[in-house]
Amino acid sequence: MKSYRKWFKVTLILIALPLLAIAGINFYIDPLWNFDHAHRFNQMQMSFNERQQKTNHLTFTGEKYDALLLGSSRITYINQADFPDQQVYNYAVNNMLPSEYPAYIDYAVKCNQREFETIYIGLDFFATNRNLTLPNRFEDPEFYINTANRFGCRYFTLLSTDTLRYSWQNFNASRKGAEINFAYNRHNCKSLLPGSQEEKQQRIAQNLEWYGKEAYGVNYSYESPREILSTIKKKHPGTRIIIFTTPEAQPLFELIINHNLINDYKRWIRDCVLVNGELYDFMTPNSITTSLDNYYDASHVYPETGTLMAKRLSGAETHTIPENFGVRVTLENLEKHLQQIR
Protein backbone atom coordinates (compact mmCIF):
# COMPACT_ATOMS: atom_id res chain seq x y z
CA MET A 1 0.00 0.00 0.00
CA LYS A 2 2.82 2.37 0.91
CA SER A 3 4.55 1.75 -2.38
CA TYR A 4 1.32 2.47 -4.23
CA ARG A 5 0.87 5.78 -2.39
CA LYS A 6 4.46 6.70 -3.12
CA TRP A 7 4.00 5.89 -6.79
CA PHE A 8 0.80 7.97 -6.87
CA LYS A 9 2.52 10.98 -5.28
CA VAL A 10 5.49 10.75 -7.61
CA THR A 11 3.15 10.55 -10.60
CA LEU A 12 1.23 13.64 -9.45
CA ILE A 13 4.45 15.54 -8.99
CA LEU A 14 5.71 14.55 -12.43
CA ILE A 15 2.44 15.75 -13.97
CA ALA A 16 2.19 18.89 -11.88
CA LEU A 17 5.72 20.19 -12.35
CA PRO A 18 5.52 20.71 -16.15
CA LEU A 19 2.08 22.30 -15.79
CA LEU A 20 3.32 24.63 -13.06
CA ALA A 21 6.31 25.54 -15.21
CA ILE A 22 4.07 26.34 -18.21
CA ALA A 23 1.68 28.36 -16.06
CA GLY A 24 4.55 30.22 -14.41
CA ILE A 25 6.14 31.23 -17.71
CA ASN A 26 2.80 32.26 -19.23
CA PHE A 27 1.97 34.34 -16.17
CA TYR A 28 5.42 35.95 -16.09
CA ILE A 29 5.38 36.97 -19.77
CA ASP A 30 1.57 37.38 -20.12
CA PRO A 31 1.19 37.41 -23.95
CA LEU A 32 -2.63 37.51 -23.72
CA TRP A 33 -2.63 40.64 -21.52
CA ASN A 34 -4.61 38.96 -18.74
CA PHE A 35 -2.54 40.69 -16.06
CA ASP A 36 -0.83 44.03 -15.68
CA HIS A 37 2.75 43.42 -14.53
CA ALA A 38 5.68 44.76 -16.54
CA HIS A 39 9.38 43.93 -16.44
CA ARG A 40 12.35 43.73 -18.80
CA PHE A 41 11.44 40.28 -20.09
CA ASN A 42 7.91 41.06 -21.26
CA GLN A 43 8.38 44.52 -22.77
CA MET A 44 7.90 43.18 -26.31
CA GLN A 45 4.40 41.82 -26.90
CA MET A 46 3.55 40.32 -30.29
CA SER A 47 0.21 41.47 -31.70
CA PHE A 48 -1.05 38.04 -32.70
CA ASN A 49 -4.68 38.62 -31.63
CA GLU A 50 -5.28 42.31 -30.90
CA ARG A 51 -9.03 41.98 -30.43
CA GLN A 52 -8.60 39.39 -27.69
CA GLN A 53 -5.53 40.97 -26.14
CA LYS A 54 -7.04 44.43 -25.79
CA THR A 55 -10.39 43.07 -24.64
CA ASN A 56 -8.57 41.01 -22.00
CA HIS A 57 -6.66 44.07 -20.87
CA LEU A 58 -9.81 46.10 -20.36
CA THR A 59 -11.51 43.18 -18.61
CA PHE A 60 -8.85 42.29 -16.08
CA THR A 61 -6.65 45.29 -15.32
CA GLY A 62 -9.32 47.55 -13.86
CA GLU A 63 -7.71 50.75 -15.15
CA LYS A 64 -9.98 53.75 -15.67
CA TYR A 65 -9.83 56.09 -18.64
CA ASP A 66 -11.16 59.49 -19.68
CA ALA A 67 -11.32 58.72 -23.39
CA LEU A 68 -11.47 55.85 -25.87
CA LEU A 69 -9.77 55.62 -29.27
CA LEU A 70 -11.13 53.30 -31.98
CA GLY A 71 -10.10 52.45 -35.51
CA SER A 72 -8.29 50.06 -37.79
CA SER A 73 -4.59 49.17 -37.82
CA ARG A 74 -3.90 52.70 -39.05
CA ILE A 75 -4.90 53.96 -35.60
CA THR A 76 -3.03 51.30 -33.60
CA TYR A 77 0.18 53.27 -34.13
CA ILE A 78 -1.12 56.36 -32.33
CA ASN A 79 0.39 56.44 -28.87
CA GLN A 80 -2.43 56.74 -26.35
CA ALA A 81 -0.08 58.73 -24.09
CA ASP A 82 0.15 61.51 -26.72
CA PHE A 83 -3.25 62.94 -25.80
CA PRO A 84 -2.52 65.75 -23.33
CA ASP A 85 -4.53 65.93 -20.12
CA GLN A 86 -6.48 62.75 -20.90
CA GLN A 87 -6.10 59.10 -19.98
CA VAL A 88 -6.90 57.47 -23.33
CA TYR A 89 -7.24 53.77 -24.13
CA ASN A 90 -6.34 52.80 -27.69
CA TYR A 91 -8.83 50.04 -28.58
CA ALA A 92 -7.97 50.12 -32.30
CA VAL A 93 -7.19 46.76 -33.93
CA ASN A 94 -6.31 45.33 -37.31
CA ASN A 95 -9.12 45.76 -39.86
CA MET A 96 -11.67 46.99 -37.36
CA LEU A 97 -14.81 47.99 -39.28
CA PRO A 98 -17.42 50.58 -38.25
CA SER A 99 -19.97 47.80 -37.66
CA GLU A 100 -17.78 46.64 -34.74
CA TYR A 101 -17.55 50.04 -33.05
CA PRO A 102 -20.84 50.06 -31.07
CA ALA A 103 -20.23 46.71 -29.36
CA TYR A 104 -16.63 47.50 -28.42
CA ILE A 105 -17.61 50.95 -27.15
CA ASP A 106 -20.39 49.48 -24.99
CA TYR A 107 -18.02 46.92 -23.51
CA ALA A 108 -15.28 49.49 -22.86
CA VAL A 109 -17.81 51.66 -21.02
CA LYS A 110 -18.83 48.65 -18.94
CA CYS A 111 -15.22 47.89 -18.01
CA ASN A 112 -14.55 51.57 -17.31
CA GLN A 113 -17.59 51.65 -14.99
CA ARG A 114 -18.49 55.08 -16.29
CA GLU A 115 -19.01 56.86 -19.57
CA PHE A 116 -16.00 58.29 -21.37
CA GLU A 117 -15.65 62.03 -21.66
CA THR A 118 -14.51 61.63 -25.27
CA ILE A 119 -14.59 58.88 -27.87
CA TYR A 120 -12.23 59.30 -30.82
CA ILE A 121 -13.32 57.33 -33.89
CA GLY A 122 -11.04 56.86 -36.88
CA LEU A 123 -12.80 56.20 -40.18
CA ASP A 124 -11.32 54.67 -43.34
CA PHE A 125 -12.87 55.44 -46.71
CA PHE A 126 -12.29 51.90 -47.98
CA ALA A 127 -14.64 50.66 -45.24
CA THR A 128 -17.54 52.42 -47.00
CA ASN A 129 -17.56 49.61 -49.58
CA ARG A 130 -20.49 47.41 -48.55
CA ASN A 131 -19.04 44.61 -50.72
CA LEU A 132 -15.61 44.77 -49.10
CA THR A 133 -13.88 41.42 -48.56
CA LEU A 134 -10.98 41.64 -46.13
CA PRO A 135 -7.93 39.35 -46.39
CA ASN A 136 -8.41 38.24 -42.77
CA ARG A 137 -11.58 36.88 -41.17
CA PHE A 138 -12.38 37.99 -37.64
CA GLU A 139 -15.10 36.96 -35.23
CA ASP A 140 -17.82 39.33 -34.07
CA PRO A 141 -16.99 41.43 -30.98
CA GLU A 142 -19.18 39.20 -28.81
CA PHE A 143 -16.81 36.28 -29.39
CA TYR A 144 -13.81 38.06 -27.85
CA ILE A 145 -15.89 39.64 -25.10
CA ASN A 146 -17.47 36.30 -24.14
CA THR A 147 -14.06 34.62 -24.22
CA ALA A 148 -12.65 37.16 -21.78
CA ASN A 149 -15.62 36.67 -19.45
CA ARG A 150 -15.64 32.88 -19.56
CA PHE A 151 -15.26 31.40 -16.07
CA GLY A 152 -11.58 31.14 -15.13
CA CYS A 153 -10.50 32.21 -18.61
CA ARG A 154 -7.29 33.98 -17.74
CA TYR A 155 -6.15 31.16 -15.46
CA PHE A 156 -6.99 28.31 -17.81
CA THR A 157 -5.01 29.96 -20.60
CA LEU A 158 -1.93 29.82 -18.37
CA LEU A 159 -1.83 26.06 -19.00
CA SER A 160 -1.96 26.42 -22.79
CA THR A 161 1.02 25.36 -24.86
CA ASP A 162 -0.14 27.77 -27.57
CA THR A 163 0.15 30.59 -25.05
CA LEU A 164 3.58 29.23 -24.10
CA ARG A 165 4.72 29.56 -27.72
CA TYR A 166 3.86 33.27 -27.72
CA SER A 167 5.42 33.69 -24.28
CA TRP A 168 8.67 32.27 -25.60
CA GLN A 169 8.62 34.62 -28.62
CA ASN A 170 7.97 37.63 -26.39
CA PHE A 171 10.67 36.57 -23.94
CA ASN A 172 13.30 36.22 -26.67
CA ALA A 173 12.34 39.53 -28.24
CA SER A 174 12.39 41.36 -24.90
CA ARG A 175 15.67 39.76 -23.86
CA LYS A 176 17.41 41.16 -26.96
CA GLY A 177 16.21 44.64 -26.06
CA ALA A 178 15.65 45.81 -29.64
CA GLU A 179 12.35 47.05 -31.02
CA ILE A 180 10.43 44.71 -33.29
CA ASN A 181 8.00 45.78 -35.98
CA PHE A 182 4.29 45.60 -35.11
CA ALA A 183 5.02 44.68 -31.46
CA TYR A 184 3.47 46.39 -28.43
CA ASN A 185 5.08 47.34 -25.15
CA ARG A 186 3.28 46.94 -21.83
CA HIS A 187 1.77 50.41 -22.19
CA ASN A 188 -0.27 49.54 -25.31
CA CYS A 189 2.15 51.42 -27.56
CA LYS A 190 2.84 49.77 -30.93
CA SER A 191 6.03 50.05 -32.99
CA LEU A 192 6.33 50.67 -36.72
CA LEU A 193 9.90 50.69 -37.97
CA PRO A 194 11.02 52.00 -41.37
CA GLY A 195 12.69 49.60 -43.78
CA SER A 196 14.56 50.31 -46.96
CA GLN A 197 13.13 52.48 -49.74
CA GLU A 198 12.98 49.43 -51.98
CA GLU A 199 10.87 47.57 -49.41
CA LYS A 200 8.59 50.59 -49.04
CA GLN A 201 8.02 50.80 -52.78
CA GLN A 202 7.11 47.10 -52.83
CA ARG A 203 4.62 47.60 -50.01
CA ILE A 204 3.08 50.60 -51.75
CA ALA A 205 2.73 48.64 -54.99
CA GLN A 206 1.01 45.82 -53.10
CA ASN A 207 -1.33 48.33 -51.43
CA LEU A 208 -2.28 49.92 -54.72
CA GLU A 209 -2.97 46.54 -56.27
CA TRP A 210 -5.19 45.36 -53.40
CA TYR A 211 -7.12 48.62 -53.00
CA GLY A 212 -7.55 48.92 -56.74
CA LYS A 213 -9.11 45.47 -57.00
CA GLU A 214 -10.82 44.81 -53.67
CA ALA A 215 -11.62 48.17 -52.06
CA TYR A 216 -12.18 50.57 -54.96
CA GLY A 217 -12.76 48.13 -57.81
CA VAL A 218 -15.85 47.28 -59.84
CA ASN A 219 -17.63 45.82 -56.79
CA TYR A 220 -17.55 49.09 -54.89
CA SER A 221 -20.92 50.18 -53.52
CA TYR A 222 -21.14 53.09 -51.09
CA GLU A 223 -22.43 52.37 -47.59
CA SER A 224 -23.00 55.38 -45.38
CA PRO A 225 -21.72 55.39 -41.78
CA ARG A 226 -24.63 57.58 -40.69
CA GLU A 227 -26.66 54.82 -39.02
CA ILE A 228 -23.73 53.50 -36.99
CA LEU A 229 -22.59 56.97 -35.92
CA SER A 230 -26.15 57.90 -34.97
CA THR A 231 -26.42 54.75 -32.86
CA ILE A 232 -23.23 55.61 -30.99
CA LYS A 233 -24.34 59.18 -30.33
CA LYS A 234 -27.75 58.08 -29.06
CA LYS A 235 -26.27 55.48 -26.72
CA HIS A 236 -23.72 57.91 -25.28
CA PRO A 237 -25.39 61.33 -25.21
CA GLY A 238 -23.06 62.77 -22.57
CA THR A 239 -19.89 61.86 -24.47
CA ARG A 240 -18.21 64.04 -27.03
CA ILE A 241 -17.76 62.01 -30.21
CA ILE A 242 -14.79 63.12 -32.29
CA ILE A 243 -14.56 61.43 -35.67
CA PHE A 244 -11.67 61.76 -38.08
CA THR A 245 -10.52 60.41 -41.41
CA THR A 246 -7.30 58.41 -41.54
CA PRO A 247 -4.45 59.83 -43.66
CA GLU A 248 -3.71 57.90 -46.84
CA ALA A 249 -0.65 58.61 -48.98
CA GLN A 250 -1.37 60.56 -52.15
CA PRO A 251 -0.95 57.55 -54.51
CA LEU A 252 -3.74 55.78 -52.64
CA PHE A 253 -5.97 58.86 -52.68
CA GLU A 254 -5.43 59.10 -56.44
CA LEU A 255 -7.01 55.64 -56.76
CA ILE A 256 -10.26 57.14 -55.50
CA ILE A 257 -10.11 59.68 -58.30
CA ASN A 258 -9.05 57.15 -60.92
CA HIS A 259 -11.96 54.85 -59.99
CA ASN A 260 -14.44 57.76 -60.19
CA LEU A 261 -15.25 57.57 -56.48
CA ILE A 262 -14.57 61.19 -55.60
CA ASN A 263 -18.29 61.95 -55.33
CA ASP A 264 -18.67 59.02 -52.91
CA TYR A 265 -15.74 60.38 -50.97
CA LYS A 266 -17.39 63.80 -50.68
CA ARG A 267 -20.66 62.12 -49.76
CA TRP A 268 -18.82 60.28 -46.98
CA ILE A 269 -17.41 63.53 -45.59
CA ARG A 270 -20.85 65.14 -45.77
CA ASP A 271 -22.61 62.22 -44.05
CA CYS A 272 -20.15 62.26 -41.17
CA VAL A 273 -20.47 66.00 -40.59
CA LEU A 274 -24.27 65.99 -40.85
CA VAL A 275 -24.51 63.28 -38.19
CA ASN A 276 -21.80 64.44 -35.80
CA GLY A 277 -21.60 68.15 -36.46
CA GLU A 278 -17.84 68.04 -36.97
CA LEU A 279 -15.07 65.95 -38.52
CA TYR A 280 -11.28 66.19 -38.58
CA ASP A 281 -10.11 65.47 -42.11
CA PHE A 282 -6.57 64.07 -42.26
CA MET A 283 -7.09 62.34 -45.60
CA THR A 284 -7.79 65.03 -48.20
CA PRO A 285 -4.31 65.73 -49.73
CA ASN A 286 -2.20 67.86 -47.41
CA SER A 287 1.39 68.49 -46.33
CA ILE A 288 1.65 65.08 -44.66
CA THR A 289 -0.10 62.85 -47.18
CA THR A 290 1.86 64.22 -50.14
CA SER A 291 5.17 63.06 -48.66
CA LEU A 292 5.92 59.33 -48.64
CA ASP A 293 8.57 59.98 -45.98
CA ASN A 294 5.70 59.96 -43.46
CA TYR A 295 4.51 56.49 -44.48
CA TYR A 296 5.46 52.89 -43.88
CA ASP A 297 3.38 51.94 -46.94
CA ALA A 298 0.52 53.73 -48.68
CA SER A 299 -1.90 53.63 -45.75
CA HIS A 300 0.04 53.56 -42.45
CA VAL A 301 1.75 56.67 -41.12
CA TYR A 302 4.60 56.37 -38.65
CA PRO A 303 3.89 56.92 -34.93
CA GLU A 304 5.50 60.37 -35.12
CA THR A 305 2.66 61.47 -37.42
CA GLY A 306 0.22 59.76 -35.07
CA THR A 307 1.50 62.11 -32.37
CA LEU A 308 0.52 65.09 -34.54
CA MET A 309 -2.94 63.56 -35.02
CA ALA A 310 -3.40 63.06 -31.28
CA LYS A 311 -2.47 66.64 -30.54
CA ARG A 312 -4.75 68.01 -33.28
CA LEU A 313 -7.70 65.92 -32.12
CA SER A 314 -7.24 66.84 -28.47
CA GLY A 315 -6.91 70.55 -29.22
CA ALA A 316 -3.27 70.80 -28.14
CA GLU A 317 -2.30 73.04 -31.03
CA THR A 318 1.43 73.43 -31.69
CA HIS A 319 3.46 75.04 -34.44
CA THR A 320 4.72 71.58 -35.47
CA ILE A 321 1.33 70.56 -36.92
CA PRO A 322 0.81 71.62 -40.56
CA GLU A 323 -2.25 73.85 -40.80
CA ASN A 324 -3.84 71.72 -43.53
CA PHE A 325 -3.36 68.42 -41.65
CA GLY A 326 -6.51 67.51 -39.78
CA VAL A 327 -8.80 70.28 -40.99
CA ARG A 328 -11.80 70.66 -38.69
CA VAL A 329 -14.88 70.46 -40.90
CA THR A 330 -18.16 71.69 -39.42
CA LEU A 331 -21.61 72.48 -40.76
CA GLU A 332 -20.41 76.04 -41.31
CA ASN A 333 -17.43 75.26 -43.55
CA LEU A 334 -18.61 71.91 -44.99
CA GLU A 335 -19.52 73.18 -48.46
CA LYS A 336 -16.30 75.17 -48.77
CA HIS A 337 -14.29 72.10 -47.79
CA LEU A 338 -16.09 69.94 -50.33
CA GLN A 339 -15.44 72.52 -53.04
CA GLN A 340 -11.71 72.42 -52.19
CA ILE A 341 -11.76 68.64 -52.57
CA ARG A 342 -13.29 69.02 -56.01
Written description of the protein model:
- The protein is an alpha/beta fold and 342 residues long.
- The protein has a single domain, classed as SGNH hydrolase (Rossmann fold).
- It has 13 helices and eight strands.
- The protein has helices at residues 2-29, 50-61, 73-76, 101-112, 141-148, 153-156, 161-176, 197-215, 226-235, 250-258, 262-276, 303-314, 334-341, and strands spanning 45-46, 67-70, 88-90, 118-123, 183-184, 240-245, 278-281, 327-330.
- The protein has a six-stranded mixed β-sheet with strand order 3-2-4-6-7-8, covered by helices on one side.
- α3 links the parallel β2 and β3.
- α1 crosses α7, α2 (50-61) packs across α5 (141-148) and α9 (226-235) runs parallel beside α11.
- The longest helix has 28 residues, at 2-29.
- The protein is globular and about 90 Å long.
- It starts with a helix and ends with a helix.
- Characterize the quaternary organization of these chains: single chain
Low-pLDDT windows of residues: none
CATH class wording: Alpha Beta
Structural class: alpha/beta
Strand order of the largest sheet: 3-2-4-6-7-8
Note the main sheet.
6 strands, mixed
Q: How many beta-strand elements?
A: 8
Instruction: Please name the CATH topology.
Output: Rossmann fold
Fraction of residues in H or I helices: 40-55%
Radius of gyration over alpha carbons?
A: 23 Å
| CATH architecture descriptor name | 3-Layer(aba) Sandwich
Q: What is the CATH superfamily classification?
A: SGNH hydrolase
Query: Averaging pLDDT over every residue, what do you get?
Result: 92
Dominant shape: globular
State the order of secondary-structure elements, H for helix, E for strand.
Answer: HEHEHEHEHHHEHHEHHEHEH
Number of domains: 1
Strand % is: 5-15%
